[in-house]
Write a structure and sequence with these properties.
The chain is α+β, with helices and mostly antiparallel strands. It is built from ten helices and 25 strands. It folds into three domains: 106 residues, Sandwich (Immunoglobulin-like), CATH 2.60.40; 128 residues, C2 domain (Immunoglobulin-like), CATH 2.60.40; 202 residues, 3-Layer(aba) Sandwich (Rossmann fold), CATH 3.40.50. Strands 21-19-18-23-24-25 form a six-stranded mixed sheet, sandwiched between helices. The protein has a five-stranded antiparallel sheet with strand order 4-5-1-9-8, covered by helices on one side. β24, α9 and β25 form a beta-alpha-beta unit. The longest helix has 22 residues. One of its GO terms (biological process) is cellular response to calcium ion.
């Protein structure tokens, strides 16, 4: 299989309604950016919308990546006139909510998502009948099969079988393919099978035997399950026979993510040693702000409120002496939480050492209230903690909850907490990451590490096959 091909796994349907305008022709241009990019990149794709009653509709397929914050901008023009405005949406939020409505002065857009790769596996067992011999009189072909998906623009290879030596009537090993990869969940949509004679040369020079385009509907309708191959240079090049065929319902990560909300709880350290890291500058975001923008915002889109909770520990807030305090009590969304963080700094008395165990129990309590949905707890700390023994006891208890707690150290070589979390007594619900000060790439590396941990934990807890 080609490793450089990115398969499209989500279909986005766009329904456009004009408030007053009555256009004759409507076009939509797409722009795109990821979390590492500052500006939208204009895509070559321009969609012509079709009118249905009072609405204009179109669909496009795209690739969703859990590890990226993917934002689209749609730009509308009509009757060969200039743009009448654009709207933005996040792909992760659309996947989770399935339905979003955006509007401006001139129009409203309804966006709906449908998973292409839903986890349904198509089991298939193929054999060949009287295949074309491309090896002359003294040998026979060494046939193998390649399977291709048509994504609306090109054929993408999705599977390749083993080759069978010296055999014109081979039987290949059975295998399974995701139905979405084969035909975008459309039983009438063709996929392609190519049959080749294997070459052992380097580089290989495989010889073409024949091919066919077929749909699942064709397969189910066939009595014989025998399908003739086509080769423009030969009147007969053999057939393929389907010995066994079955569609097996299954779950995958995207399907689970679509129906599972994520609750995000973030704890920031406010000790005297951390004061310099909380300094606000108009020139550059501090490390806590970077975390909320680069990682918090990306996770908030998987919550129905498009938000999370921000806490502090290691200091006192508004003269209230507690182990931890909530900063984002009444705010909603990334802008509100970032604003509350900035405002709270003037009312915080920075303390000495941080107590992490009460914060961990708060995250566990939130998980109990939020299950069966998934809860993530982040604890951004500077160095040593003040409740080492209690923390060790906490790690000794196994949690059977949809939860992961991730410590993020702002200084490297934090031996105390590293030795505790990495000990054998840790029951795998607490992980440790680090971020380097004044390193622009560090936050991006951290994001990738964090989202890998979260995906692995979701797969493991909900028993999702890789």
């Amino acid at each position: 299989m080609k490793q450089d091909c990115i398969f499209k796994n989500i279909s986005v349907q766009i329904t456009l309604n004009f408030k007053e305008l009555k256009p004759k022709e409507v076009k939509l241009s797409l722009a795109y950016k990821e979390s590492s990019e500052q500006i939208f990149k204009i895509l070559k794709k321009v969609l012509n919308l079709n009118k249905e009653n009072e609405n204009w509709k179109s669909t496009f397929n795209t690739h969703f990546d859990f590890h990226k914050f993917q934002s689209y901008r749609v730009d509308i023009s009509f009757d060969d006139k200039a743009s009448i405005g654009s709207l933005d949406f996040q792909l992760g939020e659309l996947l989770q909510k399935e339905n979003l409505v955006k509007e401006n002065t001139y129009y409203s857009i309804q966006l709906q998502s449908q998973l292409i790769q839903q986890g349904n596996q198509v089991f298939q067992h193929w054999s060949g009948i009287k295949l074309l011999n491309t090896d002359g009189f003294f040998r026979k072909s060494d046939p193998f099969l390649q399977f291709y998906q048509w994504d609306g623009e090109q054929w993408n290879q999705i599977h390749q079988t083993e080759y069978i030596e010296n055999n014109l009537n081979p039987t290949w090993i059975p295998f399974q393919l995701d139905m979405g990869l084969m035909n975008f969940q459309d039983e009438f949509k063709n996929f392609k099978i190519e049959c080749w004679d294997h070459s052992k040369k380097n580089p290989p020079k495989h010889k073409y035997i024949g091919s066919l385009e077929i749909s699942i509907f064709d397969i189910l309708s066939s009595q014989s399950k025998i399908f003739e191959l086509y080769n423009p240079n030969h009147t007969s090049c053999g057939s393929l026979k389907l010995l066994s065929f079955q569609i097996n319902p299954n779950r995958n990560f995207l399907n689970q993510l679509k129906k599972t909300q994520i609750q995000t709880n973030i704890f920031f350290e406010f000790t005297k040693n951390s004061m310099k890291f909380h300094q606000i500058s108009h020139q550059q975001l501090n490390i806590f702000q970077q975390f909320m923008i680069m990682i918090g915002q990306q996770l908030f889109q998987y919550n129905q409120s498009n938000s999370g909770k921000l806490f502090g520990f290691g200091g006192n807030y508004q003269q209230i002496n507690k182990d931890y305090f909530e900063i984002s009590k009444d705010s909603n969304g990334i802008q509100g939480i970032c604003s509350d963080y900035t405002k709270c700094l003037k009312d915080i008395a920075f303390g000495n050492k941080v107590q992490v165990t009460p914060a961990l129990f708060e995250i566990v309590k939130q998980s109990e209230l939020f299950k069966p949905n998934f809860t993530i707890g982040f604890l951004l700390i500077l160095e040593e903690i003040g409740d080492e023994d209690k923390f060790k006891l906490f790690l000794n208890h196994q949690l059977i909850l949809p939860i992961i707690m991730i410590f993020i150290t702002i200084k490297e070589n934090v031996n105390q907490i590293s030795s505790i979390i990495n000990s054998q007594n840790n029951m795998n619900k607490v992980r440790l990451c680090s971020i380097k000060e004044n390193d622009k790439k560090s936050i991006q590396i951290l994001r990738e590490e964090i989202f890998t941990i979260i995906e692995q934990e979701i797969r493991e807890f909900y028993n999702i096959n890789l």
